[in-house]
Amino acid sequence: MSFVGVDWGTSSLRAYLIDDTGAILDQRSGRDGISKTSGQWEQTLLRYIGDWVDTGVHDVVLSGMITSRQGWVETPYVSLPADAMRIAEEMVHRRVAGLDLWFAPGLAFERDASTVDVIRGEETQILGQLAEDSSGTSLIILPGSHSKWVLIDGGTVTWFSTFLTGELFNAIAEHTLLRTTLSDKSSKKAFVEGVTLGSASETGEGGILHKLFSLRVRALDNPNGAVSKDLLAGLILGTEIREATQQLARLPSAYVIGNSVLARQYITAMETSGLAVELGNEDAAAAGLFKLFQDRKVPSGL
Amino acid sequence: MSFVGVDWGTSSLRAYLIDDTGAILDQRSGRDGISKTSGQWEQTLLRYIGDWVDTGVHDVVLSGMITSRQGWVETPYVSLPADAMRIAEEMVHRRVAGLDLWFAPGLAFERDASTVDVIRGEETQILGQLAEDSSGTSLIILPGSHSKWVLIDGGTVTWFSTFLTGELFNAIAEHTLLRTTLSDKSSKKAFVEGVTLGSASETGEGGILHKLFSLRVRALDNPNGAVSKDLLAGLILGTEIREATQQLARLPSAYVIGNSVLARQYITAMETSGLAVELGNEDAAAAGLFKLFQDRKVPSGL
Question: Which of A144, A194, B100, B159 could form a disulfide with B151 if both were Cys (CB 3.0 to 4.6 A apart)?
Answer without folding.
Answer: B159
